[in-house]
Structure formats: C-alpha cells, structure tokens
Amino acid sequence: MGNSTSSALSKEILEDLKLSTKFTENEISQWYENFQKQCPSGRISPEEFEQIYTRFFPESDAKSYARHVFRSFDTNDDGTLDFKEYIIALHMTSTGKTTRKLEWAFSLFDVDKNGYINKTEVTEICQAIFKLIPKEEQSQLPEDENTPEKRANKLWAYFEKKDSERLAEGEFIKGVIENENAMRLIHYEPLKH
Known about the structure:
By secondary structure, the chain is mainly α.
C-alpha cells in the first residue's frame, strides 16, 4: 500500500468536499494526487496560483484577476490556498450553483472584505476582468462597455445606487439574477471559435 499516512487525504476533508461540491470521491482523490505533486508543501502561493490561472488565459493578462480570485478563496487569510480551499475554488468557478457562484462573485468584488461593495471596488475588478479579454475581442465590445470604466459604470447602474453608496451581498445577488447583462458583466467568458 505504500506510505498512505502523510500523503493521504483525510476522510473528514474528503467527506466535507463531497458534500460541498458535486465532485466524486475519485475526482477529489485524483486532484489531491496532482495537487501533492504540484505543491509538495500542501499549499499554493499567490504566484503559483497566478501561473495556473495564466494557462487558462494564454492570450491575456490574467495576473490581477488571479490575485483577486486567490484573495476571495483564501478564507483563512494565511496568504496560501490549501487543498480544500483550492477544490472549493475549482467548484465555485466551474460547476457551482448560481447563488453560490454569486456569493463567490460578491467576495471577489468585496476587495477590502468589509461585507459591502462600492463603485471603486467594482471598477478595480472590471479592470482585472478587462485584462482577461484578448485585444481583438475588446475591439468587438459594445460602445458602452469597451473600457473597464464604462463596463464598471454600466454594471453599477444595474444596482440603482449613487456612486458614493455601497451594495450589500443580497442586493448584489438580486441585481445580478434579475439582469442577465449584469451577469455577463461580472465575469469574462472567452468567445467560442
């Protein structure tokens, strides 16, 4: 059987991840093996996470967006992602339920982690999202969202808040669910070629 004590995934974490994600025990175990190979320390640094993220967006500058994604999943604020945080991140950004994804999106936009979003934070995340969009796609964007600032203004307008006001999580989720354009503006979906 080999040395299963140091590298085995604890039953507790495995059960927890099976409950909180749609992943099977097999999938989780496979990812854990790969995670152990890639990150022998058992933790991913922000730099390693940026490298992983950059592979998904080879045509773009994914660094600032990756930093925000990393921050939103580093739930214990220790400056690293452990396996559990990493799998939750994978789940939330790929297969999670809409409400759960929007809860995550709120934490992504809540840059200072104060429980509210303001227009400055929306602009900061829109700038990071914009850097994910390849230059040739940027030129095809509608006039009212072809810069990060215009995109932020358009998104903020859906929430019917003044520039100086702030937005709570429930208002954010409701505003995005009720408007598919807002849903589209809070992330970047590569064009299917």
